[in-house]
């Protein structure tokens, strides 16, 4: 008998890539994950992306395709014993064992070290899901044994298609203007869109913008602190520092501290902010932010909250200059557009006679006002 209490997200979850919406750069025709699933390739990998982008769904589709024993764990609650117990099943099963470890960034170094030999030996195939940059959160030996696939936030068009699937499952209707509103409100998070549709429908039986807004305001329907609300608060925190408003920034810091947010998550955002938003206006901001990060590593809660507050007050009060950040993004756009442009001959390394004879390093001057960019980019100014 079908479970009538089954969550809407579970009811409409795609069972194959043909039903999957979005992430065409990974699961589109000829793309890496589609080919891996089609050819039943067995390897460990990490899925890095925002909430509601399809990480869990992709993992399940992959495990079904390779006919694996699939184990779904959350790094928030799982530990070494869970890994040991699952790995021991390898002796009793001829199927590949796949562990999907959600929020893998919450595994500490010791837990990741413990996981490593099972991945290395092939006893388990690991699929890790994370909203955090694996370069910072995953130990290098484990990271080197996993491919990393980056998932993009869903476009409003993708969210619209997911909404259509949800309302079809509920056997209800939604006006186009409501659909457009919800597609934008979801901010690329399919899970948020589906959850809000389900909650609103259960409360009001009618999917209107007013009903959605009322449902959002209902305190019993607030998203958990590790979901949408988590990202709202960190966004408000950063924007308050950007606006040089220390009172608001410290308030949102207190919200995160009170909810038990990882202090290193907060401190890491502060390090990024110090270069992205303050930059050349006050270079010592990066020194302070790194000192706060180190203090959080060494001290931990509850005392490191004081270090965070100290750093927030300082960063919020700094002058702001995004020129270095903007210069990087502008240069990256040219790299993406033009590819590997030829390096000017006078800037090239000339370790051999042949290279010297070809003009490598010729007329090089250590200190010069000459334009050193590739020919196609001569005159371009990135740092303004």
SSE layout and pairings?
Blueprint: H1 8-11, H2 24-27, H3 32-38, E1 45-48, H4 55-65, E2 69-74, H5 80-88, E3 97-102, H6 109-121, E4 125-130, H7 134-137, H8 140-143, E5 147-150, H9 156-170, H10 176-185, H11 190-204, H12 209-217, H13 228-242, H14 246-258, H15 263-278, H16 284-299, H17 304-317, H18 323-338, H19 353-357
Helix pairs in contact: 9-10, 9-11, 11-12, 13-14, 14-17, 15-16, 15-17, 16-17
Write structural notes for this entry.
Residues 41-154 form the AAA+ ATPase domain. Mean pLDDT is 89; it is low at 219-227. The chain is globular and about 75 Å long. It folds into four domains: 23-150, 3-Layer(aba) Sandwich (Rossmann fold), CATH 3.40.50; 156-221, Helicase, Ruva Protein, domain 3; 228-317, Zinc Finger, Delta Prime, domain 3 (Up-down Bundle), CATH 1.20.272; 323-377, no CATH class. With 384 residues, the chain is α/β, with parallel strands linked by helices. The chain is 52% helix and 7% strand.
Q: For the record, what CATH class of the largest domain applies?
A: Alpha Beta
Strand content range = 5-15%
Kindly report the name of the CATH homologous superfamily of the largest domain: P-loop containing nucleotide triphosphate hydrolases
How many discrete domains?
A: 4
Query: What CATH architecture label of the largest domain applies?
Result: 3-Layer(aba) Sandwich
Name the average pLDDT: 89
Residue stretches low in confidence (pLDDT < 50, at least 5 long) are 219-227
- Report the order of strands and helices: HHHEHEHEHEHHEHHHHHHHHHHH
SS-derived structural category: alpha/beta
Spatial arrangement of strands, main beta sheet:
2-3-4-1-5
- Binned, the helix content reads 40-55%
**Main beta sheet strand tally, sense and closure:** 5 strands, parallel
**What spatial form do the alpha-carbon principal axes imply?**
globular
| Count of strand segments | 5
Radius of gyration of CA atoms, rounded to a whole number: 25 Å
Number of helical segments with 4 or more residues: 19
Within the CATH hierarchy, at the fold level, what is the topology of the largest domain?
Rossmann fold
First-to-last CA distance: 66 Å
Function: DNA-dependent ATPase that plays important roles in cellular responses to stalled DNA replication processes.
Family: Belongs to the AAA ATPase family. RarA/MGS1/WRNIP1 subfamily.
Protein name: AAA ATPase central domain protein
Pfam families: AAA (PF00004), AAA_assoc_2 (PF16193), MgsA_C (PF12002)
